[in-house]
Amino acid sequence: MMAGSTAARSDEPLWFACRAGWITMPRFRQESSEQRRARFEQFEQRLVMTGQPLAGLLPEMELAAPAITQQVIVQPLNNVSTTQTNQAVSPTTAAAQVGAQYGFDGAGQTVAIIDSGIAWNLHALGGGFGPGHRVVGGWDFADNDANPFDSGAAGYHGTHVAGIVASQHDRFQGVSSGVDLVGLRVFNDQGQGNLEWVKQALQWVSDNRTAFENPITTVVMSLGTHWNDFTPPEWANLESQLAQLKGEGIFISVAAGNSFQEFQTPGLSYPAVSQHVVPVASHDANGNMSQFSQRADRVLVAPGESIPSTIPNNLFGTGGVNRFMGMSGTSMAAPFVAGTSALLRQAKEFMGVEEINQDVIYQQLKNTADQIYDAATGSYYRRINLEAALASIVVDLDDNTPQTATQVGSVEGGERIIGTIGKLDDIDYFRFSATQSGVMKFSIEATHQLAPVIEVLGSNVTREGNKFSFEVQAGTEYVFSMASSDGNGHYTIDFDLQTGPPPIQWGAISSRLVANQQISGEANYQFQATQNGVLTIQTNGHDNRSLTLELYNAQHQLVS
């Protein structure tokens, strides 16, 4: 241990770091004649004061300070500049990919951030607190009040985590920018926390998971204790609450820990080591395991180096409605996975999956992950692949080229097609032939934000709302496409073939007299008016036969 000195106050604890973890010195006054000597003993993989009661003692929690901190942006929104650092996969990149392909943003869900609070006044995080805002609620367990604002001198960490999950910003967008947030503050102004506050926060999530407009589906804990193992320590006190939340279907993403360089062996911090959570390790800009990241076979690996995200606007001075800074650590990787889980839940709900829980989402991410080799341990780990995970959920069942169009067969009316436009640029093609000549009408019902567009190759299509019609000839094959002009969703197409004798062509007329027409059943006539005005048609039937006259416009709609 290196020696050092610092000014001390009688009313504050003194914190300093050593290889074994964090320790708390007793309050003392500096005396010229004699200094009190502090005695320590090793206890459960951490150092504690022998002057403190050991019964029921839990280790002090680190605020999960970044293993590598690089200031990228500390500027107001209107004067943003960047310093080039390692360019890891960013939340903005992930969000842009998902938005461009699927339109998913996690909407309809709430994510709970158990950390140092959230600076909810930032525009990127909604600019307010409570119903109608992005940060819809929360609690401060350090000060025991209902305002979990991230304002402490040692704050910023929870705000940075919240931004990775849900920031709404053109340049620095969160992974799931459509979710709501709950802030649960378990660190005081000095950055000190304890597991009892975390325990209370977890219970709060269970008690309030359906208390908001959108249910809490995800919890993020970018925090940990000084621990490296494959099982929880004896003093672990969060297991009941973690098991309860998992049983309620909530996804719990926890930072794996930043102490691999110290331990030099696989293992996880607590609570990441709990079997009831999803532990998250960090990878660098090249997709390799971060040197600092703790690791074990169960981890999912996500980007955690030089990740830009929101920070309180009073950090490093005042000013600005949005401020951003780049940070590194498993603390940055855990919210990335939390945001990803919200997207996967939304995708599964979109596809009609009803049973969605942490195990289902974890297996989806695990099964679609990329394998990365870690030379430090000689092991392979799973780096999440968001695009592959979503592609495995939103399955396109119909071909998307005219040459490989799905064969419907012969159509006589009454047929139905059910399909999905999963990606925003998806186009489904179908091939059919009409059994009779007439007018084919498609009636479409669509879900979600799908705005249907039908095109028939080589034919003119008439549209009225979500009804499309075009002329068909018996025995002729047609290829049509189904797409969306805005949003994805599911669709149902009902075929209606309206048939009759081929129309007698009269051409363009201003007036015409037709006499002695023999009609048996039905006759159709087609003409075009040469000028605007009032059309009058008079019929005279012979032999006391009654005639019914119907007039249709060019869109084959009955004119009253």
Element layout with pairings:
Elements: E1 15-18, E2 21-24, E3 40-43, E4 46-49, E5 68-69, H1 91-101, E6 110-115, E7 135-140, H2 157-166, E8 180-185, H3 195-208, E9 216-221, H4 239-247, E10 251-255, H5 260-263, E11 278-283, E12 300-303, E13 307-310, E14 324-328, H6 330-350, H7 358-367, E15 370-374, E16 379-383, H8 386-393, E17 406-411, E18 416-421, E19 428-434, E20 438-446, E21 452-456, E22 462-464, E23 467-472, E24 477-484, E25 489-499, E26 504-509, E27 525-529, E28 551-552, E29 558-559
Parallel strand pairs: 6-8, 6-9, 7-8, 9-10, 10-11, 11-12, 12-16, 17-19, 26-27
Antiparallel strand pairs: 1-2, 3-4, 5-14, 13-14, 15-16, 18-25, 19-24, 20-23, 20-25, 21-24, 22-23, 28-29
Helix pairs in contact: 2-6, 3-4, 6-8
Please sum up the structure shown.
With 560 residues, the chain is α/β, with parallel strands linked by helices. It has helices at 91-101, 157-166, 195-208, 239-247, 260-263, 330-350, 358-367, 386-393; strands at 15-18, 21-24, 40-43, 46-49, 68-69, 110-115, 135-140, 180-185, 216-221, 251-255, 278-283, 300-303, 307-310, 324-328, 370-374, 379-383, 406-411, 416-421, 428-434, 438-446, 452-456, 462-464, 467-472, 477-484, 489-499, 504-509, 525-529, 551-552, 558-559.
